[in-house]
Amino acid sequence: MNSEQNNLVIEDENIICIANSYIMKYYINKMFESLPREVKDELKITLVSLAEEVGGVITLMFDDDGQVSFGINHEDEDYLFDDISAGLISKKILSDKKDLFEQIEVYNKAIKLLREQEKNGK
Fold first, then answer.
1. Which DSSP symbol is given to 39?
2. What is the mean pLDDT of the chain?
3. Please, how many CA atoms are within 13 Å of residue 114, restricted to the half-sphere of its CB?
4. Residue 108: closest CA among 32, 44, 8
5. 86-114 burial, b if ≥16 CB within 10 A, otherwise e?
């Protein structure tokens, strides 16, 4: 899957990255470009592998509580897509990579705090 950050601008600060199995593209939110290379590589491998395994469009994002979660969408005409398998596999990944995702959650909180301080002039 190609890494095409220039073709898509992710404006939602709750979205970390997206892998689209239909167009074979991977995107990372510019807000997370400053993550260490190893972390970005791990995210790409994880999302692209999941997208290739289950199909559809996989979004790694923060839920309302600030925890990392997956959003999985598919085209209506994708009759091979299996919601149950996609859900089970994504839950296993969240469990297996818990440490990685917790680090990203801390990073996100720090970035938001810094932005808030800048906004308030501190």
1. H
2. 89
3. 7
4. 32
5. beebbeebbeebeebbeebeebbeeeeee
Q: Mapped to the 3 state alphabet, what secondary structure does 44-98 carry?
A: HHHHHHHHHHHCCEEEEEECCCCCEEEEEECCCCCCCCCHHHHHHHHHHHHHHCH
Residue 8: is its pLDDT beyond 70? Answer: no
| Residue 3 pLDDT greater than 50, yes or no | no
B/e letters for 58-74, b = 16+ CB within 10 Å, e = fewer, are bbbbbeeeeebbbebeb
CA distance 48 to 50: 5
pLDDT at 116: 87
Distance CA 5, CA 43 (A): 14
What pLDDT is attached to residue 9?
62
Give the model's pLDDT for residue 37: 95
Given the structure tokens 């990392």, which residue do they identify?
A: 68
Can you name the residues that pair with 15 across neighbouring β-strands? Answer: 61
